[in-house]
Amino acid sequence: MNLPALRGHNEALLLDLLRAAGAPGLGRAELAARTGLTPQAVSKITARLAAEGLVAEAGRGASTGGKPRTLLRLVPGARHAVGVHLDRDELSAVRVDLAGGVLARWSGPLDFGAGPEPVVDSVVRAVARVSGGAGAGPPLLGVGAAAPGPLDWRGGVLGRVTGFPDWAGYPLREVLAGRLGLPVVLDKDTNAGVAAAAPGGPGSGTTVYLHVGTGLGAGLRLDGAVHRGARSAAGEFGHQVLRLDGPPCRCGGRGCLEVLCLEAVARGEPAEAARILGEGAANLAALLDVDRILLGGRVVDADPEPFVAGVRAALASRVLLEHPPSVARSPAGVAEGAAALVRGRVFGWT
User: Fold this and answer.
1) Cα(314)–Cα(37) distance, rounded to whole angstroms?
2) DSSP string across 82-125
3) Nearest-angstrom CA–CA distance, 263 and 17
4) What pLDDT band is residue 274 in, cutting at 50, 70 and 90?
5) Of 226, 197, 14, 189, which is closest to residue 100 (Cα–Cα)?
6) Count of C-beta atoms within a 10 Å radius of residue 107
7) Bridge partners (DSSP) listed for residue 237
8) Other Cβ atoms within 10 Å of 245 Cβ, number
9) What is the structure's pLDDT at 1?
10) Relative orientation angle of helices 3-21 and 334-347, to the nearest 10 degrees
11) Peptide bond before residue 150 is cis, with ω within 30 degrees of 0
12) Long-range contacts of range 279-282, CB-CB < 8 Å, 24 or more positions apart?
């Protein structure tokens, strides 16, 4: 048995329950009942977490015949995480606490086509802006970096990003970790989007995050876990062909959902763009039996209502979707999702 891994797993279980409970907290007996751990194990683990500043007392609960229960709560400010979103023309960064609360935010222009070195310099400066520098607050868990795909999530290496072939094979995670002196998680922007939009954990269902920005893609959370695929290639939603004789797409195909949708956006026709997006979403919902669809990205954020309405209408029109998934605007952005990929490791759900 891998005892350090088991200890980390049990700590994550308890911390996630306390995260979900919020300020009111939970008692040790409740934590034991919900996790299946013994009361003695819960006491040992929570004492260790309290010594690390992650857990604190939240007051006393109602008595059930004996002395009042001591309630415990997560200390959100005990650790922070930074998330950065490297879009093709914009860089965004946030610093969040363990509860996901945004404490600092910055954004500015980025030329992804300028190549790795100037982009890495920009990311390092952005992290410094939102983190406040060394010793300026609680320890940082690390930095999450969300970038356009394709990329190798496990290896931390970028692939042939559509339109930017010079990035192929670049070890972005390793380079950033060396420059920042912090652990770095690298993932696709769409995977970060779904991590921000839908908390993880078993039993949390199937969520699809559709990102409409300079490109169009999907993040998938299947049965509580972000689904990346064996080659980190899942979620290329924008390159499903909707029109066989349609306009050429930068992926090499013709009539892809991405090119059709973004052309409608460029013409100033959000309702048509939403209709196209909705047709692709309906295909995906029928394929995966989706519970909820969340929409994000700068195009949606600029005018969310037509997109939410258009996707809902497309889903409602499909006879095979007896129970269409819910549709809403995503509650958080990709940078927040990149930070969630870091802090989620504390809770065991990324």
Assistant:
1) 46
2) EEEEE-SSEEEEEEEETT--EEEEEEEE--GGG-HHHHHHHHHH
3) 45
4) very high
5) 197
6) 15
7) none
8) 6
9) 38
10) 120
11) yes
12) 279/242, 279/314, 280/237, 280/238, 280/240, 280/242, 281/208, 281/210, 281/311, 281/314, 281/315, 281/327, 282/314, 282/315, 282/317, 282/318, 282/321
Stated pTM of the model? 0.89
Sequence letter at residue 6: L
Provide the H-helix boundaries in the chain: 3-21, 28-35, 39-51, 116-131, 172-180, 189-197, 257-266, 270-288, 298-302, 304-316, 334-347
For 224-264, the pLDDT digits (tens) are 788 898 888 888 899 999 999 999 998 889 999 999 999 99
3-class SS of residue 316? helix
Smallest Cα–Cα separation from 91: which of 71, 78, 108? 108
Secondary structure of residue 228 in the 3-state scheme = coil
Q: Say which DSSP state 250 is in.
A: T
DSSP for residue 203: T
Convert the pLDDT of each residue in 15-35 to its tens digit: 999 999 999 999 999 999 999
DSSP three-state, residue 163: coil
Token pair for residue 297? 């990205």
Instruction: Give 267: exposed, middle or buried? Use CB within 10 Å, 0-12, 13-18, 19+.
Output: exposed
Strand ranges inside 189-224, DSSP E: 207-212, 216-222
Residue 36 phi, psi dihedral angles, 5° rounding: 85, 5
